[in-house]
Structure formats: structure tokens, C-alpha cells
Write a structure and sequence with these properties.
By secondary structure, the chain is of the alpha/beta class. It is 39% helix and 15% strand. The protein is built from 14 helices and 14 strands. The strands form four sheets. It has a seven-stranded mixed β-sheet with strand order 2-8-7-6-5-3-4, sandwiched between helices. β10 and β11 form a beta hairpin. α2 packs parallel to α9 and α5 packs parallel to α6. The longest helix is centred in the N-terminal third of the chain and has 21 residues. Bound molecules: pyridoxal-5'-phosphate. The site of pyridoxal-5'-phosphate (PLP) has 14 residues, from α3.
């Protein structure tokens, strides 16, 4: 059976060029990049070259790139590494659990945390961030907002947040600003100078690189404590022998992502997503979550749409589509299998039933018209079948 993968926000396959770039690192350039002999220096060289590419990708200095194990580690490091008891953290209620759970953990350790809610559109209003600030008082009666952490693009809805405006709020208050750019990388041009952040996390496997590797941008002079201690790797900001193949794969993925940002790939993906979305919305009892503020489109990543289907259980639809060869998800992959509705959709004000009846379609950048055709054939069939057997649709629900 033909299979169509529309769950790119969960993970993406390696591009062949990434695989080829990594290949020599397993057996030829296998050295420890910290060793002083030739084998070590060869590994060091390929890591340096990836670091240069990442610096270009992020528009920062190579020394400001800290390689790590991915988005979760970058997000955890930013939060655990920047906050001390008595500090105040502002984040949002639509963050990935890598930020949310870290924020909950620091809240148990004497750090005050404010979770700012989104607008129904899924957008965070910078004014709400400003209102949540705790200015430093003399004498210090309230904790100062040490850190603001807001994602660039939401993993469930694709909504792109106004990070430049939020950075201005942070700068005015003297707060540090971390951006979880895991879902924005490769879809939005990353530029830490323009964004105005001091910390930014990315992950290779969301942009056709390998799993288990990523990077945290740390602006020079940022008082970040390292999460991992041990050796003096990464200028003492992240101990652990460097994952040379992974880092080389991340570098190649970043280089290819920079090309895709310029060569029309993303516009092509957006038009496929729009055709898919319009086709699905022809079904009665459907609608898009996020992406609209009244009649105005909010910016969204090109590859994502999140759609509700009345009288359908989202989890059942994921399974029905899987049986028809279509891979999609009911929200964040980290929570699939959970019976709880999406915290993102709930924070946007959807009721539980609608949140449970929502699916995320996220296209790979290699998606084709034929992929969309297949999903547009499979979805109405699966929805019609589920509605026909749904006790809700039949009016027999208790
Ligand atoms: N942040 C966001 C927005 C994500 O979507 C994800 C992964 O789904 C992560 C962080 C975690 O990244 P990783 O899987 O590299 O740990």
C-alpha cells in the first residue's frame, strides 16, 4: 500500500546528502574531537566546519554555537541554567513539554513562573508578556524577571510567534530571552541578531538531520550554567564527547535548509498544504485551529495545518488514516497515546471535545501533489466511516 508521511513535525527522514556527509564519520573520521593526534584533529576539523555552517544558519559567531543532544536538552539548559531561587520566569502555556516541564520543575525550587496564555488564534501577544514582567524593586520585594522563554513556531498549529516584539519587551526589562526554535528551523529564516535573543534551541531531526543532536545558541556573555558537567568540551558549556557524525549531519541539514529557504521549496510546500487544507475543509463539520485572528491570517509554518473534525475521535482518525497508509498525528508526538486533549488547543480556548477531535497534518519538504491527492482520498472515507459508527453522530451518546 502507498504510504504518505504527513507527520514532519514529529520527525523527518535524513536527506541523502546528510547521510553521505555523515558516512565517513563512523569509521574513517572516528576520532575524539578533543584528542591532539591526527585522528582527533581530523574529527575536530569536521566539527569546526559544521560549527561555521551553524553560525551562518543562526547569524552568530561560531563560538556561540553549543552542540548538544537536541531540542529537549537546549530547552532544559536554557531554563535550568539561567534561573536561581528568587528569580522570575515568563513562558507560555503553549510551549513544548521540554519547556513546560522544566518550568514546572524550577517552580518547585523557589522560582516564580508565569505561564502566559495565547490568543484564540494561537498567537502570544507581546503586551501580555509585558504585563507579566516583574520589575526589580529596591528593596527587592518581588523577583526580577530573569528569563522569558517563547517558542518561534508551535509544533501543533504551526503558528509563528512575534519573537522580535517579545525580544524588545525583554530588552527593555533587562531580561534574558530564550527562543525554542525547534519547529521554526528550516521553515523561518533564523537570525539571532534580528530576533534579539540570547539563547535559541534547535534540533537536527526536525530538519532532515539525525536524531539525538542539536545546538543551543548562547550569546557571548550570557550567564548560563551548564547542565552537563565533566570535561571542558564546548568551552565548558556542555560536557561530553562530541557526537561527530551527528554534528556533521546537523551541519549538512542546516546548509540544505538555508538553500530551501531561498529556492522556492517552502512556497511549494505551502501551496501543497493549502490545497490539502482546502480539500479537507470541503467536508462538513471541519475547521482549522489557529492561523486566523478574525479574518486575518496569522503567520504559520508552510508545512502545518491543524484541523478539527466534528463527531470524530482524533485518536480513532489517526488509526483509521494509518490503515489507509497516511501517517498524521493528534498533536505532539511526545504525548500520543495520552488521553488528555492537547494543552495547546485547550490553551487557545477549544473545548475538550473539539481538541480531542483535532489532527495535525505536517508535510515534509519533499511532499508531492500525489501525496496530497492520496490524503484527500483517504480522509473523507475515514471520516465518513467514523461518523457512521459514532454514537455522537447517531444521537445515542449518553
Ligand atoms: N521543542 C519543540 C517545539 C518541539 O517540537 C520538540 C520536539 O517535538 C522539542 C522541543 C524537543 O526536541 P527533541 O526531540 O530534539 O528533544
Amino acid at each position: 500500500m502507498r504510504r504518505v508521511y504527513m507527520d514532519a513535525n514529529a520527525t523527518t527522514p535524513l536527506l541523502p546528502e546528510v547521510m553521505e556527509a555523515m558516512r565517513p564519520c563512523w569509521m574513517e573520521h572516528f576520532g575524539n574531537a578533543s584528542s591532539i593526534h591526527l585522528d582527533g584533529q581530523t574529527a575536530h576539523k569536521v566539527v569546526d566546519s559544521a560549527r561555521e555552517t551553524l553560525a551562518q544558519f543562526l547569524n552568530c559567531r561560531p563560538a556561540e554555537v553549543v552542540f548538544n543532544s537536541g531540542g529537549t536538552e537546549g530547552d532544559n539548559t536554557a531554563i535550568f541554567g539561567m534561573l536561581r531561587p528568587g528569580d522570575h520566569l515568563i513562558t507560555t502555556s503553549i510551549e513544548h513539554s521540554a519547556v513546560l516541564q522544566a518550568a514546572q520543575r524550577v517552580a518547585e525550587r523557589g522560582i516564580e513562573v508565569t505561564f502566559v496564555a495565547p490568543q484564540p488564534s494561537g498567537l502570544i501577544d507581546p503586551e501580555d508578556i509585558r504585563q507579566a514582567l516583574r520589575p526589580e524593586m529596591r528593596p527587592k520585594t518581588q523577583p526580577k524577571t530573569q528569563l522569558i522563554s517563547v517558542m518561534l513556531a508551535n509544533n501543533e498549529t504551526g503558528v509563528i510567534q512575534p519573537v522580535e516584539e517579545i525580544a524588545k519587551v525583554a530588552a527593555k526589562a533587562g531580561s534574558y530571552f530564550h527562543i525554542d526554535a525547534v519547529q521554526g528551523a528550516g521553515k523561518v529564516k533564523l537570525d539571532v541578531q534580528r530576533f534579539g535573543c540570547q539563547l535559541l534551541s534547535i534540533s537536527a531531526h526536525k530538519m532532515h538531520g539525525p536524531k539525538g543532536v542539536g545546538a543551543l545558541y548562547v550569546k557571548q556573555g550570557t550567564p548560563l550554567d551548564s547542565l552537563m558537567v565533566g570535561g571542558s568540551h564546548e568551552r565548558r558549556r556542555r560536557a561530553g564527547t562530541l557526537n561527530v557524525p551527528g554534528i556533521v549531519g546537523l551541519g549538512k541539514a542546516a546548509q540544505l535548509a538555508m538553500e530551501s529557504l531561498k529556492d522556492g521549496t517552502l512556497e511549494r510546500v505551502a501551496s501543497l498544504r493549502d490545497r490539502l487544507e482546502a480539500g479537507i475543509l470541503e467536508l462538513s463539520g471541519t475547521g482549522v485551529n489557529g492561523g486566523w485572528a478574525g479574518n486575518v491570517r496569522t503567520p504559520r509554518t508552510q508545512n502545518t495545518t491543524n484541523i478539527w473534525f466534528d463527531q470524530v475521535d482524533g485518536e480513532a482518525l489517526v488509526i483509521a488514516l494509518d490503515l489507509k497508509g497516511v501517517a498524521v498525528s493528534g498533536g505532539s508526538a511526545c504525548h500520543s497515546g495520552s488521553t488528555e486533549p492537547s494543552h495547546v488547543l485547550m490553551a487557545m480556548g477549544l473545548d475538550k471535545n473539539r481538541a480531542r477531535a483535532s489532527l495535525r497534518f505536517s508535510l515534509l519538504k519533499t511532499a508531492t501533489e500525489a501525496d496530497v491527492d492520496h490524503v484527500l482520498r483517504a480522509t473523507p472515507e475515514a471520516v465518513a466511516h467514523l461518523r457512521a459508527i459514532s454514537p455522537v453522530a447517531a444521537g445515542t451518546a449518553g
